[in-house]
UniProtKB/TrEMBL annotation:
The keyword DNA repair is annotated on this UniProt entry: no
MF GO annotations: ATP binding; ATP hydrolysis activity; ATP-dependent DNA damage sensor activity; endonuclease activity; mismatched DNA binding; ribosomal large subunit binding; rRNA binding
Entry-linked Gene3D superfamilies: 3.30.1370.110, P-loop containing nucleotide triphosphate hydrolases
Organism: Porphyromonas asaccharolytica (strain ATCC 25260 / DSM 20707 / BCRC 10618 / CCUG 7834 / JCM 6326 / LMG 13178 / VPI 4198 / B440) (Bacteroides asaccharolyticus)
Residues reported in the UniProt entry to bind ATP: 355-362
The name this protein goes by in its record: Endonuclease MutS2
Subunit description: Homodimer. Binds to stalled ribosomes, contacting rRNA.
InterPro entries, A to Z: DNA_mismatch_repair_MutS_C, DNA_mismatch_repair_MutS_core, DNA_mismatch_repair_MutS_sf, MutS, MutS2, P-loop_NTPase, Smr_dom, Smr_dom_sf
Amino acid sequence: MPSDITYPSDYLDKVGYYDLLDLIALECHSSMGREMVGALTASTRPDAIRHRLERVREMRHLLSVTMELPTRRVADLRPTLGTLRAEGSYLTEEELAQVAQAIVSYEAWSRLLTKVQDNGAGEVSPLYPSLSRLVVGSEGLQEIAQTILRKLDPHGRLVDNASPRLAELRLALQREERAIAKLMRGLLTAAQAAGYVEEDAQATMRSGRPVLPVTAMHKRQIPGIVHDESATGKTLYIEPLEVVEANNRIRELESEEHREVIEILRQLTAPIRERRETLSQLYLSMGRIDAVCAIARFADEMHCSIPEVRNKPTIQWYQAVNPILQHTLSQEGKSVVPQDILLRYPNERILVISGPNAGGKSVCLKTVGLLQYMLQSGIPIPVHPDSVAGVFKHLAIEIGDNQSMEDDLSTYSSHLKHMRAMSAACGANSLLLIDEFGAGTEPELGGAIAEGLLALFNEQRAWGVITTHYRNLKEYATTHKGIVNGAMLYDQKEMKPLYELSIGQPGSSFALEIARQQGLPRQVLEYATALVGEEVIQSERYVQDIVRDKQYWQRKRTEIEHREQKLERLLADYEARLSKLKEQRQDLLTQAQQEAAQLLDQSRAQIERTIREIKESQAERQQTKEARQALSAYSEQLAQAETVEQTGSVERELERLKRRKERKERKRKQGDSPERGAQSQSPVKLSMPQPPKEGDEVRVTTMNVVGVLSELSDNSATVVVNGRIRITCKPNEIVRLGSERKEEQAQATAQPARTTNVVEHLHERRLDFSDRLDVRGMRAAEAIQAVQYFLDDAISLGFNRVEILHGTGTGALRVSIRELLDHYPGVSHYHDEDVRFGGAGITIVHLQE
C-alpha cells in the first residue's frame, strides 16, 4: 500500500469524493474558496480533525444566529495583485472596485468571527475561538477601501469630483458637447430644408465624430469631411466644417480627461502596491473562510452531524446515508434508506455483507469509504449526532472492473494484485473495502483464496467492509472473532430489496426466489434445487427466518426505546412539577414563620400586660418570676417551630402553644380565687408518673398525637389513633395521660382542626415514606425489628404493596423474614420479585386494604 492515506490512486474517484467536493464548491463565493474546497484532503491526526470539525461547527452556529452575512461574490485578486509587481503599473477602475469590495467583505467577516463573550468578572473570550484564528491583520486596509469607494460610482467609474481637475475637464466637455449638439440640430434642419438630407434622417456618429447623412448627389453642397458612406453608396456621412474645430476641442478635452483619470488611478493604486502582501494574505484568509462557510452550508443542507471522534479506529454510525446518493435521489423526489454501520473492537472489526444482487451492498461499502474520508477531511457526515467515529491511517478499496489491457491483466489478476498490496501493508489502523470478495474465477478456488485472505486480514487486526456471495466466507465470519456477518434485507412478499443493512446474521442471495419471479421455467428451478441439495435450500430458509425474526425484535426494541423516551419526558415533567410544589411549600413555610413571628409579638405584649397586672395587684415575686419564665419558654418553643420544615408542623406547634397559653391563663385565674390561695399555703404533693400499659391513652411525643396503646414490648410500641390509624414508635416516645389531661386532650381531639393536623402529618409521612426496605448486611434480629417498623408504617400510611430487599446469600435472612410475614397482622400475601428485577433476592409484600 502506498505511503499515502488512500489506495489505490483512484480511491477518491471510486468512493465519489470529488463529486462531493463539486457539490460543496457550489456554495462558495470566491475562486479561492472553490480551490481550497477542491484541495481538501484527509488527515490522520485526531486533534487536527477535531479542530477542522470545530471550525465548521462554529460556522454553522454563526449561520444560524446571524441574519445578514457577507454574501457578495469576491473576484480573484491574484491576477490584479500580480500586475502591481511591475513598476509604474496601475489598476483599472474595475480592479480597484474589486479590491475595495474584497476588503469590505473581509472586514465584515472579521467582525463576525472575532466577537467576544463575557465570562464574568470582567473577563472576555472569543465567541468563535477556532474561526477567529482564520482572521489576519488588516490594519489600514479599511481606509484604502473607503477612499476607493468614495471616488467610484456604483458602476465602478470615477466620479466627477474625484479630483478638481477632473471635475473641471468634464464640465468643459459637457459644455462643448451641448454646443455641438445645438449646432448640429441647426445644420440638419437647414440641410433638410434644402433637400440635401432626407426628411426623416437624423444626425449620427462616425469614428467618434458627429456627422450628417447627406445624399450622394448633394455632397458638394455640404462642406466638410467625409467619414463614411452607406453600403449602396447613395448616402455619405459628412462632418460639417462648422463643427470640426469644436470636435477637435472635444478630442483635446477627452485626452486631458484620460490623463487625469490615469493620474487618479495611480494615486489610488499606490497604497495598494504598498500593502500587496497584506492583501494577498487577506485574500488567502478569505478563501479559507469561504471554504469553511461552504462546508457549513452543505452540512446544513444535507443534515450532517459531527460525531464523537476517537483517537483509535472505530465506526459506530447510526442512520448513515451516502450524500451523493441523497443529492441525486432528492432531485427525483426520492429518499435514501439510512444504515446503522457498526464496526467495534475487538470482535466486530470486519463486516462481511451478503444479500441479493442490486440490494445495496456496494452502496453501503462506498458509503463507508466516502464518509470516513469526509470525516478525516474535516467535513461533517450525514449520521445521527450520537454516532462515534475513529481515525484510520490507511484507507484501501477494491471495487469494480479492474481489467487492464495495458498491463495485460484480467479482472481477477488485477483483483489479486490489489489483494497483495493490501495484505502487505494493512494493520490495526487500516480500513479495507473489498467488493465481491473472491469473485472473478472458479467459485470454489476463489472462495478458498478469499477465505485465506480474510483470515490474514483478521490476524493483522485490520478493519474492513467486505461484500460477497460465498457461503464459506459467511460461515467463517460466524465462527471467528473479529469478523461479523451483515445482511442487506429483502422483502420476500413484494420481492424487492429494502436497501437496509442488518448486522449479526448473514444474508441470503434469494437466487431461486428472484429466478422464479423473473419467470424461469419450473424444470430449471427444480433442477437447480436438486443440484444444490435440500440442505442448502433449508439453510437459506433458516437464514431468512433468522433475519426476519431479527427485524421483528429490532422493531420491538425501537418501540421500547420510544416508550422509554416518553417515560423520560414524563419523568422530567413530573420532576419539574415536584420542584414547583417544593417551591410553593417553601413559600407556605415562610408565610407560616412570618405568622409565627407576628403571634410571638402579640403574645409577648399580652404576657407583659399580664405581668404588669400581677405587679399592680401586688402579687408575689414568685408568681411574677413564673410568668416571665413562661414567656421565655414560649419564645424558645416558637423559635423551634420556625425551624420545622413542614408547614403543617409549624401550624400544629402554634396550636399547641396557644392551648398552653390558655391553660396557664386558666390556672392563673384559679390562683386568684380564695380556694386556690388556701391551697397554696399547704405543701405540694408530688406524684411519680405511672408507666403506660396496654389500653392506656398515651401521647406520641415525636408526633404530638394522642391514641390508645395497643401493643407494648421492650423495643417497640403500637398506638392506635382514632380507632383506625396504627403508629409504631419506641417506648420512650410515648407518655401516659392523666385523667385531667385525658379530658382536655379528648376535647382537643374532638376539634376538626386537631384531626386535620393529624391527617396532614400522616400525608407528609406518606410522601417521605419509601416503599422499599433494604436489610442486606443486617443480623436476623436487627432485620426482623426493621421489617416490623417498616410494615407498621406502611400499614398505618395506607400502602398496599411494599418491597423488602434481603438478597440471596445463604437464604437464612429470607427465611426469617418470611416466617415473620406468615403470621404478621395486616399482611395479605407475598412472593418473589420477577427474575428480571431481582428474583429471590427481593420479597414483594401485599398488605390488606
